[in-house]
Amino acid sequence: MSSGDGSTLPSAELPRLLDVLGAKGYRIIGPTVRDGAVVWETIRRMADLPIGWRDQQEPGRYRLERTDSRDIFGVVHGPQSVKPFTFAPREPLIRIERTSGGWSVHSHLQPAEPIALLGARPCDLAGLAIQDQIFLRGPYQDTAYAVRRKGLFLIVVNCTRALPTCFCRSMETGPRATRGFDLALTELDEVMLIEVGSEAGQAILAELPVAPASEALLAEASARIDACARSQIRSVERAKLPQVLYEVHDHPRWDEVGARCLACTNCTMVCPTCFCHTIDEAPDLTGQRTERTRLWDSCFTHEHGYIHGKNIRPTIKDRYRMWLTHKFAAWHDQFGTSGCVGCGRCLTWCPVGIDVTEEVAALLASDSRKQQKTVSQRHE
Ligand code: SF4
Ligand code: SF4
């Protein structure tokens, strides 16, 4: 962040941002506390935001606690990323009806409601960029995704506190957002530092009582974000991935993790980049009409591995190995990027606390041992 590229808004004036967004026709969606977790909800007033709350996350554990702080964005994140707003968990696609001459097909596609998403995190934006690549680039564009994506105004909040489960620094996806936002906020003491990332963001900022940010404030924001990066205790050593993963297909670690994994699918549901889906066809009893719906699916289910006449991933070990190898290796071949953005959600929401960073490290360690053996053989 350099001098002159930020504005400040007193935190007490944040309701003005809600007013301006509302006046522009956006439904504001932001974090709110519900049933012991932070989830996305419609935000009508400041009190809907999780002011004073903090999240504690570890593998297999999520807790919210109240603090004396007046921080608005003290909670880092909940189980949901931005994904449900573009790649809907349940997307009605078409309705087919019998007519006197045959069939008629009706699309369910509607213009998307403009949504201003307040409080996305940098890793969420990195996940969204990957989903954009999957659904929008290439020979086919997913129209339902494209419509939803077009209506999204993104207000990211840079992270100044890392969870023990975060490893965005090693994946180079955070804790500062560098692109893909309309507005970026950094919450400081009683003041928000605001960066503009798009023309739409500039139009909103123009209606707020902001002042240019001082050098001291910009330096303070940078220092807090850098400290957040340094405090991350987990990381993924990416230098040798994906080659090593392709070579460890028969590693005994897959048996160990396969024995722990419950195939519950939680990790894939919370992951900002996973995109597996299935199509459900629901004909009515009269045979006059059928509804076709796209639903989120997971490579951890037995059914997902079924290909005509055979299941290609019959065991949980097969499915975990496929998921991890796809994320950290094959994804590079398919999309030119890792399939993981280091958000840590799959660690937190795994009921048995399987830690993907630990699994990758164990597999990489076998490669180091192999290399050490080769070196010592050479010296013999
Ligand atoms: S694999 Fe886990 S840490 Fe990586 S992006 Fe998905 S949920 Fe986040
Ligand atoms: S969340 Fe954990 S137990 Fe559930 S499928 Fe994923 S790795 Fe397996």
Please write the string of helix (H) and strand (E) elements: EHEEEEEEEHHEHEEHEHHHHEEEEHHH
Radius of gyration: 23 Å
| Quaternary class | single chain
Strand line-up across the major sheet: 3-2-8-9-10-11-1-12
Our estimate of the beta-strand percent is 15-25%
Report the end-to-end length measured between terminal Cα atoms. 53 Å
Class of secondary structure makeup: alpha+beta
Q: How can the largest sheet be summarized?
A: 8 strands, mixed
Bound molecules: iron/sulfur cluster
Number of domains: 2
Could you estimate the helical fraction of the residues in percent?
25-40%
Average pLDDT, rounded to a whole number, is 94
Total DSSP helices:
12
What overall form do the CA principal axes indicate?
Answer: globular
Number of strands: 16
**Could you name the ranges where pLDDT drops below 50 across 5 or more consecutive residues?**
none
Describe the structure.
The chain has 380 residues and is α+β, with helices and mostly antiparallel strands. It is built from 12 helices and 16 strands. The chain has helices spanning 14-23, 122-136, 143-150, 168-171, 199-205, 215-230, 243-247, 253-260, 266-270, 316-335, 345-348, 356-379, and strands at residues 7-10, 27-34, 37-42, 53-58, 61-66, 90-99, 102-107, 115-120, 152-157, 183-188, 191-196, 211-212, 277-283, 289-296, 306-307, 310-311. The protein is globular, with a radius of gyration of 23 Å. It starts with 6 loop residues before the first strand and ends with a helix. The structure holds iron/sulfur cluster (2 copies). One iron/sulfur cluster (SF4) is lined by residues 270-273, 327, 340-346, 356.
